[in-house]
Amino acid sequence: MGGGRIFSRCAVMILTLLLAWPLQWAPAAAQEPLPRRNLLDMIFGGGRRYIDPPPPVREVAPRRPRQRQREQSQPRRNRAPTARASAPRPAAPAAPAKPDPVAKLENARQILVVGDFLAGGLGDELKTAFEESPGVAITERSNGSSGLVRQDYYNWPGQLPALIDEVKPALVVVMIGANDRQEMQTGSGRVDFPSDAWFKEYEKRVRDFGTIVTSRKIPLLWVGLPSFQSPSLMRDAVKLNGVYRSEIAKIGGEFVDIWDGFVDEDGKFIVTGSDMNGQQARLRGSDGINFTTAGKRKLAFYVEKYARRHLGEMASPELVTLDASSLPELQILPPSPSAAVPVQPISLTDPELDGGSVLLGGAPPPAQLIETPRDMLVRRGELPPAPKGRIDDYALPSPQ
């Protein structure tokens, strides 16, 4: 009973304090925010008013002036560009300076390159191929739209003799025919491509054109046509290459076959393939006819091998003039005081070199030769008996 009374009194006192709390601090409540509700408030309640903390106030940016708004409403193309602060970009590494071309010798042997637009690219890359060879110079005289059919446009049989007399080449390279797939005007009239009459006349023109070079005892390299993306153009290129190969062989020239360098394993046209260094590169243009720089360099690589064989030592990049200007300076050093005294030469047949008095083989052989294990194995196929106790000693022990 006594414990129950004490608990009731304590509860009354706590309730009284809780009810008197808002009356005591009423003046301060008007100035400070009301406290948050605690656990006792939620259990016993009370006459006070409680509020939750207000939500955080979001700061609203002030509105821009109307003039600034009008500027932003203007089209973007009329607005003045604003400067953007950006970090300075690192400078790209400078490309290594290309060495100066090697000066050509006065008596450098000339290679004359003639033909159509394909010959023009070939001549440019042949200059790169021989840029370090002072004994070889390249002269390129091509006409992009020319051929052996339209002699009314550009007459190669009439122009080539004058070019040879002017350049005086040691080698002539011809690449032509990409523009010749058209009708031909002959003495008996016009013939259509690819009729038999057309090919018969074309063979004669190829033979006559090559004879202008070979009749002057000048080596002739006739470069064949490459593969093309167009199936019909590719088919005709195969026929024309057959004409070049047969007719140039008849007059003593050489046919340079480049076909395999620009097709895949199945013989189909490729745009990307191995360059002259074996690396994958784009070789042909988007039109399927022209070459890229890597393709031209690969094309020149085929011709370069033939040209170096004809020109010999003059095509070597290490060619130098052997005169007093290219010899190194000879420096004669004074003799050293500590140098060893030279010994007198002796004969290799002197028996006293090894302390003996008889040369090797000079003594008579022994009267009885001892047969070695090697002689037993080679001559009779026998092995000497194994030493007693070794693992291969298979002899049975003698009985006690």
Automatic annotation (TrEMBL):
GO terms for molecular function: hydrolase activity, acting on ester bonds. Residues 50-101, 380-400 are annotated as: Disordered. Residues 80-89 have a biased composition (Low complexity). It holds the Pfam family DUF459. Residues 90-99 have a biased composition (Pro residues). It comes from the Bacteria. InterPro entries: DUF459 (IPR007407), SGNH_hydro_sf (IPR036514). This is Uncharacterized protein. It comes from Pseudorhizobium pelagicum.
